Amino acid sequence: MSITKVYIGMGTCGLAQGAVEIQKAIEDFLGQKKMPYEIIPVGCIGYCSREVMVDIELENMPRISFCEITPENVKELMVEVIDNKNINNKWLLGTYKKTANYPYIFETPYFIKQKRVALENCGIINPYSIEEYIAAKGYQALQRVLAMKPEEVIEQIKKSGLRGRGGGGFPTAIKWELAAKQKSNKKYMVMNADEGDPGAFMDRAVLESDPFRVIEGMAIAAYSIGASFGYIYARAEYPLAIARLENAIEIAKKKGYLGKNILGSKFSFELKIKKGAGAFVCGEETALLGSIEGKRGMPSPRPPYPAEKGLFGKPTVINNVETIANVPWIIREGAEKFYAFGEKNSRGTKVFAVTGNVKFSGLIEVPMGVTLRTLINDIAGGVPDGRSFKAVQIGGPSGACMPAKLLDTKITYEDLKENGAIMGSGGLVVMDNTACMVDVARFFMNFIQNESCGKCIPCREGTKRLYEILDRIVLNTSNRKNSPDELLRFKSVLELEELCTIIKDSSLCGLGQTACNPVLSSLKHFRDEYEAHIFEKKCPTHVCSSMVKCSVVQEKCKGCSLCSKKCPQGAIYGKPGSPYIVAHDKCTGCLVCMSSCKFGAIIKE
Amino acid sequence: MKLKMKINDKEVEFKKGETIYQIAKKAGFFIPTLCYMEGYKPSGSCRICVVEDAKSGRLIASCSYPADNGMEVKTDSPKVRSSRKKTIELLLSNHPQECLICEKSGHCLLQELSKQHGISEVTFKGGAKKKNTIDKASPSVERDMAKCILCGRCVTVCAEKQKVSAIDFAYRGFATQIAPGNHKSLNEGKCVSCGQCIMACPVGALKEISHKKLVIDAIVGKKKKVAFQFAPACQMTFPEYFKKTISVDDATKKIVGALRHIGVAFVLDTCTAADITIVEEAKELIGRITKKDKPLPMFTSCCPAWINFIETFYPKLTDHLSSCKSPHIMEGALLKHLSKKLLNVDAKDLFVVSVMPCVAKKSETGRPQLNNDSLENVDAVLTTRELFSLLDEFGIQFEKIEDSDYDRPFSTASGAGKIFGSSGGVMEAALRSAYYYITNTELENIDFKSVRGMSEVKRASVEISGIKVNVAVVNGLGNVVDILEDVIAGKSDLHFVEVMSCPAGCIGGAGQPYGTDVEAIKSRMKTTYKNDEKAAIRCSHQNEEVKELYAKHISEHEAHELLHTKYKGDK
Fold first, then answer.
1. Other residues' Cβ atoms within 10 Å of the Cβ of residue B397
2. Whole-model pTM?
3. Is A177 helix (H, G, I), strand (E, B) or coil?
4. Which of A453, A468, A506 has its CB closest to that of B50?
5. Dihedrals φ, ψ of A25, to 5°?
6. B341-382: per-residue pLDDT in tens?
7. How far is B45 from chain A (nearest CA, A)?
């Protein structure tokens, strides 16, 4: 009897959904049946909304993937698959080999338009096993590179058109070249794994699911620039990623893929993990370097650029996780193949963490050049529950809100920039028609003003003032005690755009320079919403609570008087038995009446 | 190839690596700055010095950007002006508008900038830093963090120049603060009280712990006889109070006269005590060299911030410190203990005020091991600034009052005593007398020029009748670290090291007038050596008053008790 292999999605997303309990249940089930089995933990394949993934490989069968498995339904799944041999059940996602009977997983709607390069192995191989990585063509690239000259490697990267995936989009080969040219007794290779954008988790998934890949990528980069020491700067909030990386580094060292004289060559490379303490600004490269040096993470002026004078004053290249994850693929499969994806100066693929009001949230890797519409509607399944699409926030707090009319924008550095957005690191938050854009801008501004390092004046003081202005806009000053005075509110509004410009133009680092993008872009595309807040004191989507008024739908009201009794402001009047009314000048929009009404007669206005 | 760029359409040449700010300054284009400090790596944090790149329209911080060949910038375009103005407004929106009652008023860079940019209204309003969080716990430095604009100059000086790092940035975003290690008060950390942060602060967030009210109360209260003493470096600064060309002697006479006019009983010269210090210190040095009774090199002990530094960071090296008290404490000790004999006053009726160029001296008076018989040697320490402000407060009309001289027995000083305030001065004074004590003959050429000047570290070798004495003179605490490490490693061949915390010594002290810059310090240094040159006697051991004090009043036992001290960490 051959061994039954069970692969369980055990990235942070899978674990959060109960992967450990599922594993236990499967072990119990197969144990009772006395079937020889092997449980293989894998990372995240990116279909986060349908976790937990359980793949089962039976005798003479391909590996078959089932999704939305929970500790509750796992036994049922096992009974169906193992006992009843019913593969075509409601959990079936697809197979890993094309067959006549079942859908091929990479041809299902979620995957068919994706092109997996950085995520190649994610969710497929065991992140603890170097053998599995090698079986998936791992370390072929490094082997090839060690037979090449460093400048030849850089040439390949140049040919591939790879640009930094952390947000800035700086051509990777140029960075490497600059550092390679520096004459120094020591150079450093640093990987930025301080992923901090709200809603972004691309890097985490790669680190958790395919740690050997980034180690290989780092070694290739280090070889190219002549560095013998490297750091992975990972945020401490990613304990699982760090644990898997540590494990991978240890194994790679033992097997000769890291450390002294890698694979018998003259090239040596030590790699260390440095845990970040969770400051958003440490994603900025000069702040990140400061943090590694043990200083407070505060950006410093450039030039000098890190490639000339970086970590401990030595030439340093800093690349994002996704950038590094692309490197082994480019070397292995060829720069031309990578260059073939995308258009103009945007080549290869890009991973997005799609969240918000979409049917399927998760990680989606697409070739550059597909449109936002394809990404959101075709792959992520569009906006659910019969609501309509309103905006997509791309690029995190430094990014922009793009309205429906820009959905046909192609995902390239150029097209996004042209439309006032940025590629960013890959955070993509989809919002439907219930979102208030002023509130969204205010949310991001609050994030930024909290995360500003406090060094330069425009960012430290400016973002706080900007947040306060937005806060005043969403406050209905006319019916609040201690409300800010009306004149201040209007004066503030007049300053809004100029203040954004100052912060953008004069801030020290990228955080400040892009801090106003959410405000500027929402102002550009949703000006009417701002105006409704400011002039009519109305929030069109009824999100901003101080602008919400409750009303009683006269036809639905039974006159039970409950709302009137519950209203803390005493704003609801009427006679029991006949419909009640709300006095709007007293209503504060607390919505107590709404939650107490049994007839759904209260609406927001 | 010559590098060229255009500033406001004017073509200028520059050297590789020069920043736009430096080039513009040379070419006569004014660019305002706030966080920038000459001689330090620019932090680029205030964004006041932005200029516009004519080609891209980008704003660039000129202080930190090394110019590119062919670059074109505008220092005063509408974009630049509006950016600067709004940046200042942003700062003002989070700064207490208390100029009327702020000590720094008139010397405040923020005040100057807002005037310069014609700011008449602060458009931004909202939350502000917590008020009433004044930290007065340190004996020397008072911090009002509501006024702090987070330029980081104090942090830079403390870390880079002094290598103390008693303060740093803490918290994030709008809540960012400059804070000592424990986030509470400066006295519970590593602060050595040098006060250079005060000199770096462009606004009124940092100042000395003031003893001015204490002193004025003593003067006008009339319960005690008040005795003032003036440090050498303060005297070299006195002419600046009169804002006209006036000699040190004349300026001093006027200020002595003014103090008598407002009721101060005695005014004395600390330079006399400086001469006593040299007599003691030179003997100690010879003892260490010839008898080898204590380890070498010997370090000077006049600078209290340096004492704090070595006690905090190198406690094992305190036996290298000269056991001599600093001059003003010696003078205070002698005045208090011999008060009846010297001034015909009971010690309990005497209130001694030291006027010092220094804020660390305020912490020094609190050292328990300096006080004998529970008599405070010195009751209050005024900085030069505080003295000037005290004179202002009394509205002295100098033209109507008589000039006056110091009171005996601390009224005359040798040239050696006068140069104490300049980096290298103590060293030179000690060498002059050491030569005499070793050889019993007077030096012919008494100028030791190799230990003079503005350099931060000066080394020299002096031969005194066959004994080679290696000396080093250091100003700026950070510069002494290498020497200390050498001493620990046993690699040092030095015999005598003078250490002063402040740039160029006490003349660049943290108690000197606000706005003290390199030029002001250079000028004070020049004045110092001019005064030495024209002094009647130039060696401490020749000072008749000092000789008389030793002959009549100070026994060997008293000298040991009153003029020497111990340090934390001493066995």
1. 9
2. 0.90
3. helix
4. A506
5. -60, -40
6. 888 888 888 999 999 999 999 998 887 766 666 667 899 999
7. 4
